[in-house]
Amino acid sequence: MTAYAIARLRPAAPHPDIAEYMERIPATLEPFGGRFLVHVTRHEVKEGTWPGDVVVIAFPGITEARDWWDSPAYREIAPLRSRHIEGDIILIDGVPDGYDPAVTAAALRKELDAAADRPLGTPDASGYGGDVPFARGVAPEYPGERP
Q1: Fold type of domain 3-93
Q2: CB neighbours (10 Å) of residue 24?
Q3: Pairwise CA distance, residues 57 & 22, whole Å
Q4: Residue 131 — φ and ψ, nearest 5°?
Q5: What is the pTM of this model?
Q6: Rounded CA gap, 51 and 9, in Å?
Q7: φ/ψ (deg, to 5) at 47
Q8: CA distance 105 to 102
Q9: Domain residue ranges in the chain
């Protein structure tokens, strides 16, 4: 399943280190099958605020994304960016082919129904008290998604 490195980078002044980073990053991606999908392109804010730039890099899977991030080649150039640009970067799995958000909604409804049947603060089967996984940022497993 495709995985992504997503960066939200704050505005920064131009610097020679940033140019060098941009010149060198493609060689760090190649061994891991990484490719840019979005790189500092114009974006349109529809809700909230979003100062700065967005970068999205696709990888064949989360293992390749992690291996790229931890690779000596990338770790060597990362300070060229991080010394001059603040930002948030995540590695994240995509959804499987055929993903249906209605399946996720059904799981959410099931959790909400189960939570409604328990007294407030009573732990659910996982030991978590009185809440649904979605409130904790935990989505249900998709059928056949992971081994």
Answers
A1: Alpha-Beta Plaits (3.30.70)
A2: 14
A3: 13
A4: -130, 170
A5: 0.77
A6: 8
A7: -145, 145
A8: 5
A9: 3-93, 101-136
Give the residue carrying structure tokens 């980078």: 9
Round to whole Å and give the CA distance between 67 and 61: 10
Q: Please give the Cα distance from 147 to 138 (Å, whole number).
A: 18
Neighbours of 53 (CB within 10 A): 19
How far is residue 94's CA from residue 96's CA, in Å, rounded to a whole number?
7
- Residue 120 corresponds to which tokens in the numbers above? 């407030």
- Tens place of pLDDT per residue across the chain (147 aa): 999 999 999 999 999 999 999 999 999 999 999 999 999 888 999 999 988 999 999 999 999 999 999 999 999 999 999 999 999 999 999 999 899 999 988 888 888 887 777 665 566 555 554 444 444 445 555 444 443
Q: Is there a contact between 88 and 8 (Cβ–Cβ < 8 Å)?
A: yes
Q: Which of 2, 77, 63, 79 is nearest to 31 (CA)?
A: 63
